[in-house]
Design goal:
The complex is a heterotrimer of chains A (651), B (318) and C (146). In chain A, helix 2 crosses helix 3. Chain A has 651 residues and is α/β, with parallel strands linked by helices. In chain A, helix 1 links the parallel strand 1 and strand 2. Chain A is built from 16 helices and 34 strands. In chain A, the strands form twelve sheets. Chain A has a five-stranded parallel beta sheet with strand order 10-7-6-18-29. Chain A has a five-stranded parallel beta sheet with strand order 20-27-21-22-23. With 318 residues, chain B is of the alpha/beta class. In chain B, the strands form three sheets. A five-stranded parallel beta sheet of chain B has the order 2-1-3-5-9, sandwiched between helices. Chain B has a two-stranded antiparallel ribbon with strand order 4-8. A two-stranded antiparallel ribbon of chain B has the order 6-7. In chain B, a hairpin with a 2-residue loop joins strand 6 and strand 7. In chain C, 44% of the residues lie in helices and 16% in strands. In chain C, helix 1 packs across helix 4. The longest helix of chain C is centred in the middle third of the chain and has 19 residues. The chains are: A alpha/beta (651), B alpha/beta (318), C alpha/beta (146). Chains A and C meet through helix 4, helix 5, helix 15 and helix 16 of A and helix 1, strand 2, helix 2 and helix 3 of C.
């Protein structure tokens, strides 16, 4: 038998203007177990909260119903007041008579009638609530960062500097990600490697960071504060501690492979270093393109290393498995480029002089395929007329990507500028739909580019690109003049969209982290919680969550690190106790519930009865709804409570 | 010290529960020696007038099987209740409505139209339908009124105990009768002769992955006798049905059909099984879900085969 | 029994999932979008909490209709709770067909947290559909035909 108090809020006129408050109070006071009912103008205010506190003491209440605005607004507030007044916080229920009554129904009488029912529902529920205590779980004070681009690097450094152990897992042979492939960065035209390099070295030297290259996450078990992650590390066949990057192995290697760092514009050997400033500064043997390891077909690299180098090549190396225990996981898997061969109207993959923006980026780079000179891939000549097409395969929901990749307007401006600097007699054209230059200094930079001599911005789309007499015919339109445009270009650069890493789908299912409709990692709330996955303990940083530029990536990475540090700041963690629970005497082990849990929180005990891991359970209640015996129950939202609320509505 | 008086009666029934009692065999002789069977129309020559003549409450325990489908069933149920200290709902029909309660998918007019008009072999050119009263030269004949809705025993009289099963299995029958005759008596309303856990608890079949990729009818396949039938696509009511029957149907390679009724906390056996079954459909898209749902041939008949009268909705819409 | 009663107001029980549809309904509130008061929401964490048995209970106890509202497939806060709801709902629909309960009375709708207007439209349409069908009054129907 509970002593229930009902508090009805006027919310100024927000509720009182369309609900008869006195009637609600009166009717509530007559309900079973209600010993006190009162109204107040603003229950969330200081005096309102004091009224609740005092009433609880005066009338010896042990449960309260607050009839006011949505629980989304102040449930936490009122629960805390209840707790401070000596109640268990789970003996507080909210009856939403504002958003779901007074604000949406036209007739005061009808809105009031509905308010009666809503309050009655709340009373019926709170009468049957159990006093629950939060579930305490220990926290493993280590962090896993998946993806070693600038986001992963920044996040790893922030956590490591905060004093905790970090595992940085990177699938390729080096950290650095996309930023390492850039020549300059907008809007400052900083040399990308110059600003990235020191951070990469810092990661390498940091005593708190363990870098696992050539590694992928294979399995994730556990829950927030207590993840158990199995990582598989492919062999590099080169001892990264002893390798001094002398390069003798690569000289001796007979196998040539298109260099993925340069998007296939150059060659590398099967044994290689991804780029000069790679971290770790050790070579990698690409087993897929080696002439053969099982059995050994060549072995020249090892011979060279033994003769001229530090004898650090082991061609019999095997993959290694690392079992990591961490409290938080930061996902920074970055992006890849949309497959431009799908944009058949532009002829990428057919005409060699149609390039993607990243290919052009590599060409601009001093360490790239042309040592920084701009040349046509077809004949190696310097292009005089160059066309940049923005929004290539983007903002087109019907045929390509529906979204905007945010950075292309800026890097295209930079590309066009760099072209003008390197080819002063050249003419550049930029076809654009809009110019999105929202960041700090961005608008000023674009304006500079637009005012540059020999650089023409045309507002319009390109219908088709085709080859004729060694030139690329670009047919487009200039909407500001209303004319069609044809440019006979030497080189066409497509600003293609950012798509999530090809690993993200697989990784998301392992982490049980959701992906959005475009395959990017979903955030818990687009406005208020952009750094966290809805899955507790998993944080997001960088372009893996949505297209963004470097400043935003770094900001988000530091934010995600901050969230992880917050999680790790205490040796234990409290979880909501409104979770599933099995009544053993009623359970027959039929197991109909077990496959339903998205968090793997259900299993069979040694007595072959269902068992809930309270720390893993998120309290959705899906398993409860399919339990044929009623053995599975959801704390404080039991079937008994559901039936009581249904009866409150229909009687 | 007189022997306790016991009675057995049947309502809308197939007779299987009577046979279950007869199958006590020699134990019946033992029973007859320690209790007086004062009323048992199916096996002994008792008339209703014998029952009417007994003083109220003079029968110690009465076991009634069969559902309440007509006015005679109801009349005798009320009579038996008045004459007995304890009334036990014996068998699935009395407890849940049983197979007869599938008549709740129609009504009296529907039943008469089918039986007396529409069936191909019916020869009824004058379209005569039964009436409760009919005048003949010798006087007025009357027959009981067929009800529109079949009921459980406790929907017409107060019931003390429930013994589920269609019929209740052999060793449970003798245990239950002994319990009621000798005591100690369980709390009122108890379900006797059945487990409080589902059939899955005693089923010996092996369960691997709870997943339904297809639904098959029993005639479409020969089930693997070692594996769970649900996992082979055969609808088995086991998860939502009380055990205690020794899973004899499963041992005969047939699925449980639910005759022992719902589990103690289930408010509706059919709804619970529907939820448990559909939750593990191996389908993610609306189209695939619809396909699997459409392949369940008769949800009402399947999930409420024995329990329609006891269910929340009780009958189809009037 | 099936005649339209004068001034019949449908009584609809709603099961709304807290992350999407309840938030969407709240948004209808903050946007002051008007809809009929016939719906009475019960907030659940996930539409997956809704046991078809509870839907049947609501109908048997006097509700004229039941609305189950959850997140759009793919958006479920608990990954796939709404898919289980979909599976249960499709089979429940077939069962209710056999019981003679019209499809307009029990609906499953996907309403996201940003779809306040959509929630109002769903409620308006459902209320009017059920108003045309008349009261379900299940208890009375069974009594009358006993």
């Amino acid at each position: 038998m509970k002593r229930v108090g009902v508090f009805v809020c006027h919310c100024g006129l927000n509720i009182a203007g369309n609900v008869n408050i006195k009637e609600v109070v009166d009717k509530a006071s007559k309900q079973q177990d209600v010993v006190f009912a009162v109204d107040h103008k603003y229950l969330c205010s200081e005096p309102g909260q004091t009224l609740i506190k005092d009433s609880i003491r005066q009338h010896n209440l042990d449960a309260i119903v607050v009839a006011a605005c949505s629980p989304a607004m102040h449930e936490a507030t009122f629960k805390t007041i209840a707790q401070l007044s000596g109640l268990n916080r789970y003996n507080c229920e909210i009856a939403n008579i504002r958003e779901q009554s007074s604000w949406v129904h036209e007739d005061l009488g009808k809105a009031t009638a509905k308010a009666h029912i809503t309050v009655h529902q709340g009373i019926q529920k709170v009468r049957l609530n159990e006093p629950l205590q939060p579930i305490t779980v220990p926290v493993t004070r280590k962090v896993l960062v998946i993806g070693g681009g600038i986001a992963g690097i920044r996040a790893a450094l922030d956590v490591a500097n905060g004093g905790y152990q970090v595992y940085l897992v990177e699938k390729s042979g080096t950290i650095g990600g996309r930023m390492a492939q850039l020549s300059e960065t907008f809007p400052t035209l900083d040399c990308s490697t110059c600003i990235l390099g020191p951070l990469m070295v810092e990661v390498f030297r940091h005593p708190n960071i363990k870098l696992l290259r050539l590694s992928k996450v294979e399995e994730v078990k556990g829950y927030i504060g207590n993840f158990k992650v199995r990582v598989r590390q492919e062999p590099a066949y080169v001892d990264e501690v002893n390798c001094n990057a002398c390069g003798e192995c690569a000289k001796a290697c007979p196998a040539q492979v298109p260099n993925e760092f340069d998007f296939g514009l150059t060659w590398r050997k099967a044994i290689y270093t991804p780029f000069a400033q790679a971290v770790p500064p050790a070579y990698v043997l690409d087993a897929n393109n080696c002439l053969g390891l099982l059995p050994q077909a060549c072995g020249e690299c090892k011979k060279a290393c033994d003769k001229f180098g530090t004898s650090c090549i082991d061609l019999d190396a095997w993959p290694r498995t690392h079992e990591l225990e961490v409290g938080a996981i930061i996902v920074s898997t970055g992006y890849e480029l949309y497959d431009a061969t799908k944009l058949t109207e532009y002829g990428y993959g057919i005409f060699p002089d149609v390039m993607t923006s990243m290919e052009f980026e590599r060409m601009l780079s001093a360490s790239g395929p042309t040592t920084g000179e701009i040349k046509r891939p077809s004949d190696g000549q310097t292009p005089k007329e160059i066309v940049f097409i923005q929004c290539a395969g983007q903002r087109e929901p019907e045929t390509a990507l529906p979204y905007c990749s945010k950075i292309c307007c800026m890097y295209t401006a930079r590309h066009a500028m760099m072209f003008r600097h390197k080819v002063p007699e050249g003419q550049a054209y930029v076809f654009y739909m809009d110019i999105r230059a929202g960041g700090k200094g961005y608008e000023e930079f674009v304006k500079r580019c637009q005012e540059e001599k020999g650089l023409l911005y045309l507002r319009g789309r390109v219908a088709k690109v085709y080859e004729e007499d060694g030139k690329l015919i670009v047919k487009g339109v200039d909407t500001l003049s209303g004319k069609t445009v044809q440019i006979n270009a030497d080189l066409v650069v497509l600003a293609v969209g950012m798509v999530p890493s090809s690993e993200s789908h697989n990784l998301a299912s392992k982490l049980k982290a959701s992906l959005d409709a475009n395959g990017f990692f979903s955030e818990a709330h687009p406005k208020l919680r952009p750094l966290e996955s809805p899955t507790a303990g998993i944080f997001l940083a960088g372009a893996g969550q949505s297209p963004k530029d470097i400043p935003e990536t770094v900001a988000q990475a530091s934010g995600a690190a901050g969230k992880a540090l917050d999680l790790l700041s205490s040796p234990t963690l409290e979880r909501e106790p409104t979770v599933a629970h099995v009544v053993g005497e009623l359970c027959s082990g039929c197991s109909m519930c077990i496959p339903l849990c998205p968090y793997d929180a259900l299993s069979l005990s040694s007595e072959k009865l269902a068992e809930v891991s309270e720390a893993l359970c998120e309290g959705c209640g899906t398993c409860i709804a399919s339990c044929p015996s009623g053995a599975l129950t959801l704390r404080n939202l039991t079937d008994e409570q559901m039936v009581a609320m249904i009866e409150a509505i229909v009687e | 010290m007189t022997n306790p008086k016991i009675a057995f009666n049947w309502a809308s029934s197939c007779g299987g529960c009577e046979i279950a009692i007869l199958e006590l065999g020699t134990k019946l002789v033992d029973l007859a020696s320690k209790a007086d069977i004062v009323f048992w129309p199916a096996a002994l020559d008792y008339k209703y007038s014998d029952l009417e003549a007994m003083p109220d409450g003079s029968i110690d325990v009465a076991f009634m099987n069969g559902a309440i489908q007509n006015s005679e069933n109801e009349h005798i149920a009320k009579l038996l209740r008045a004459k007995s200290k304890l009334l036990v709902a014996f068998g699935a029909c009395a407890c849940l409505g049983g197979i007869p309660s599938l008549a709740n998918t129609t009504d009296r007019d529907g039943i008469f139209a089918n039986s007396y008009k529409e069936t191909p072999t019916t020869d009824n050119p004058e379209k005569t339908f039964p009436k409760t009263k009919w005048q003949v030269r010798e006087g007025e004949l009357s027959i009981p009124e067929l009800y529109n809705t079949v009921k459980t025993l406790d929907q017409v009289v107060d019931v003390d105990y429930y013994v589920p099963g269609c019929p209740p299995v052999g060793d449970q029958v003798s245990k239950v009768i002994s319990l009621c005759v000798d005591g100690p008596l369980p709390p009122k309303g108890a379900v006797l002769g059945a487990s409080d856990k589902s059939l899955c608890h005693e089923c010996k079949r092996i369960r691997t992955e709870r997943k339904i990729t297809k639904i098959v009818r029993t005639y479409e396949t020969i089930p693997d006798p070692q594996k769970c039938l649900l996992e082979q696509g055969i609808i088995c009511m086991g998860p939502a049905t009380r055990g205690g029957c020794g899973s004899i149907c499963l041992d005969a390679n047939a699925p449980c059909r639910g005759c022992y009724g719902p589990l103690p906390k289930a408010i509706d056996q059919g709804g619970k099984m529907l939820s448990a079954l559909s939750s593990i459909f191996d389908a993610q898209s609306e189209e695939d879900v619809q396909k699997l749902a459409d392949s369940v041939p008769d949800p009402l008949g399947t999930f409420y085969r024995f329990s329609l009268a006891r269910s929340l909705l009780r009958r189809i819409k009037a | 029994m099936d005649d339209l009663e004068e001034g019949f107001e449908p009584k609809i029980v709603g099961f709304l999932c807290r992350w999407c549809s309840y938030a969407g309904a709240d948004l209808a509130g903050t946007s002051r979008i008007k809809y009929p008061p016939n719906i009475n929401p019960i907030r659940v964490n996930c539409s997956g909490r809704v046991d078809p048995t509870l839907v049947i209970k609501a109908l048997a106890s006097g509700a004229d209709g039941v609305l189950i509202a959850g997140c759009h497939p793919g958006d479920c806060h608990y990954t796939s709770g709404n898919i289980k709801t979909l599976r249960r709902f499709k089979l429940l629909q077939k069962l209710l067909d056999q019981f003679g309960i019209e499809r307009e009375r029990v609906r499953l709708e996907w309403v996201s947290a940003s779809e306040g207007e959509r929630y109002a439209r769903v409620v308006r349409r459902m209320t009017e559909d059920i108003r045309s069908l008349g009261p379900l009054n299940w208890k009375k129907r069974v009594e009358v035909l006993a």
